[in-house]
Amino acid sequence: MEILKKFASQFGKPEGILGNIAGRLMASTGVQKNKWTVSLLNIQSTDNVLEIGFGPGVATELVSNVIHEGHYVGIDYSKVMLQQAKNRNKEAIQEGKVTLKLEEVSNVPSFELKFDKVFSVNSIIFWEDPVKSLKKIRQIMKPNGLIALTVLPYMKGATEETSKKLGKDIVSYLEQAGFSNIKTELKKKKPVTAICVLGVNS
Known about the structure:
Elements: H1 2-9, H2 16-29, H3 31-41, E1 48-52, H4 58-64, E2 71-76, H5 79-88, H6 90-94, E3 98-102, E4 115-121, H7 130-139, E5 141-151, H8 160-177, E6 180-187, E7 194-200
C-alpha cells in the first residue's frame, strides 16, 4: 500500500524512478484531454501561449505544431517532467518556438512577452493559493487574453459531484482573480466527466 501511495503522489510532483513512470503514464493517457483543452483555446499561428504544469510535454507538442510566428512557454516544478518534455519537444525548442522552465506557479516569472492564451490541465488542484497565482498570471496576459483550466479528477472515490465541485471552485477562483466571461465546458471521460473552465482577462 505504501508504494501505491508514493506512486499516486507522483502525479503532483513527479520525482525519481516512480516519477518517470508516472510521466510516461500521463503521456499515454493524457492526449485526449490535452487535445480538448487546446481546441477550446482556438490557438492561432501568431499566439503567445503559456502552459502551467506541462508534465511530459504532450500539449507542448500540440501547441508548437500550430504556432509559427508565436511562442509557447511552459512552466513546471518537476525536474523529471522538464526532462521528459524537453526530450519530446527537442526540435521545437531548437527552432525557438518552445521555452520550458523549471518554476512553480506561485512564483510565476515575468516574461518579455505577454500571453494571448494560458492553460493548465490537472494542475490547479495542486496549487497552494489559486487566486493569488491567477492574479499574477493576469499580469502577464494580454487584454482579452483567454485562460483555460481543465480538471479530470482521478482520486479514489471521485464522482460526477467531485467534478462539479471542482468546476465551481475554479469558477470562483477566476472570478476572485478578476477574470470575466467565465464559462464551463464538459467532456465525458473515465472515471468521471472532465471540466474545463475558461475566462477572459478583461
